[in-house]
Amino acid sequence: MWRQSQTIKALRVGLAALYATRSLGVRMRALRVAMATACIMFSFEAAKQALHHDISIWTSHAFTILFTSLLAGASSFALLSKEKQFRCEQAASNKRHRLLFERSLSGVYQTTLDGHIRECNDAFCQILGYRSHEELLEQSAGDIYFSVGDRTNFTDSLQLEKSVTNFEHCLRRKDGSAVWVLENATLLPSEDGTGQVIEGTFIDISERKRSEEMLQNSENKYRALFEESADANWLMDEKGFVACNSAALQMFGYPPGALMLHPADISPPNQPDGTPSRVAAEQKMASAFLNGKERFEWLHQRKNGNVFPAEVCLTALTLSGQPKLLATVRDMTDRKVAEERVQFLAYYDALTGLPNRTLLKDRLSKALASARRQKDNVALLFLDLDRFKIINDSLGHSLGDLLLQGVADRLRGCAREQDTVARLGGDEFLIVLTSVEDIADVAVAAERLMDAMTTEFAIEGHFLSISCSLGISIFPEHGVDGETLIKNADAAMYDAKERGRNNFQFFTEDMNTQAVERLTLENSLRRALEKRELFLVYQPQVDVVTGTITGLEALLRWQHPELGLVAPDKFIRIAENSGLIVPIGEWVIRTACGQAQKWQEEGLPAVSVAVNVSAVQFRQEGFCGLIRRVLQETGLAPRCLELELTESLLLANADVTFSVLQELKAMGLTLAIDDFGTGYSSFSYLRQFRVSKIKIDRSFIRDVAVNPDDAAITAAIISMAKNLNLKVIAEGVEDEAQMSFLRAHQCDEIQGYYFSKPLTVDKVADKLRLNSADNAFSANHRADSSAQELLR
Do the Cβ atoms of 575 and 525 come closer than 8 Å? Predict the structure, then answer.
């Protein structure tokens, strides 16, 4: 019994230590200490009785109680020390967690299931637009949702899954605006045992959502443009086609859903340069991915096997985070046909199909070079029809054109394969005979040509007899260059005319009066600038739609003290060949710019002044510096100066030309191509040299209303210029029929006697004032008419 009593006392001491603690962990440790104390006391009591059985019970109890008390005290002290340390550590841990809670960039919260917000941090308030915790804690969690259903769906998901991860939804800020959040939440039992609580975090993803929406809108817009575009469009990746629009299917003749995997599948085996289409396509695709864009011409093939030229533009873009290429394909068949037509008409006469003056010069140059090497003779036969004007005027231009075509056919039939038969214009033809061994052979050829002309022509029921006059010059006896030979043959032809027509004459020195005249003009021209015999006149350039004067072309004139007014075509070439064009050209530019600035200072409308630039002048070192100095000295704005250049000038030494043009464009000048259509007429160089305007040569405008070929050339030039965003001006417009044609084909500007002849300085001022007043009146009249129409 005493032993049970001692055990109970030990348990009481242990329990007292147990209940002295508050923490569950400490109580468990106290329980273990109490049990250990009881065991030690029981063992101590048993050992004491065994060793000292003569000790009285009360003495034994006293020793046991004293020992147990000391042991329990020591144990309690140790437990209290550990409890204090535990509480300190717990307080520090709580402080750290509170700092993390408050300073977290994510919104952290705890709410009850019914929506009571129990706790939240600063980020939670800021994201929802509240100033303080207190302001937000007064709200219900349902207040931050746009509808009760949104909150219900969220809590239902939590109760079902116990937690949600990366849950995206839209909450309502204090000001009513929406904020998208990415939320993680867990459903837990509350610490006080009163129910369940929701603990979670969220971050603001509104910016990401806006970016995603913008990206989606952009992709939708792109998709709409892609599908509805009139051009054939493909979407491509590194391997080939991904998708195409209906225009692509229609262009290539494939049904919807047809399999087109690679550009090589819709191309001939090889491209024009011999490169396999698959290899060339992959090279272009790689270049587009690398550089962002690639534009090129390509041969494509339709499903039916037809091969056609196309312009392809590959543009790199990113869709849904993946690199792609947008391929836009345009059928160039019509454009190529038009370009080939223009190219043909640049070298061949539109009426007869014979080589024109441009091609003649090229072939003659080659023939003379070959003759120099072979020490051969070359004969030029200048042929002019006798009294052709009478037939043309009496029977009409249409029948006259048919007669010229018949003449061309007969001349072509009389010439050898290596000879050249060219039409110079009107009723003038030139025949170049190569490898001439005997001059007598040339006379025989001339007689054969004249005999061919004497046979009647049967044209639309008319039987026409016509003769011709021939002038002949021989290389190298009568000249060593093409220009001299043509000039001398022309002089000989006029001698044949004077000798009664229907004969041929060889050139002689007695016919060389033109050469003497040229020398006289050159000597006079050297003094003309000093003596102020040169002056400028200005021909207005007019907007076709409004009739407003948009510019003035400065034209050089020479008032010779003895010869009177010398035509420009007589002295301009002399100036170029002698080098006088350089000082004369500088004087023209300086005078034109100074006069244009003076008109502006007088209050007249600011219009541009166009100046023709000679090839000799353009190639002079320091030409750009000259232009810059003239603009600075005269004060004229660069945009008011337009330089007119010829096609041959641009294509000679293209690298140097390109650098000069770039510098001129950088100044702000306008660049125009003069006499377009008479040279190479290549539209590729227009893109390369970045000109702003082209002038259609007067030779096409002269018969544009009556000659289908001239009309076709002019319409093609205007159309292709518009496609290249170039302005078009037609020169030599003289009647209403020409004006109507140009207006119908949307030519931008005209220049010619139809509106105004070239004017002197004082008359230009009057013309500008009158034009300005007329336009103001027209504008007011249109405004009054509109107002009256509204009143009705």
Answer: yes
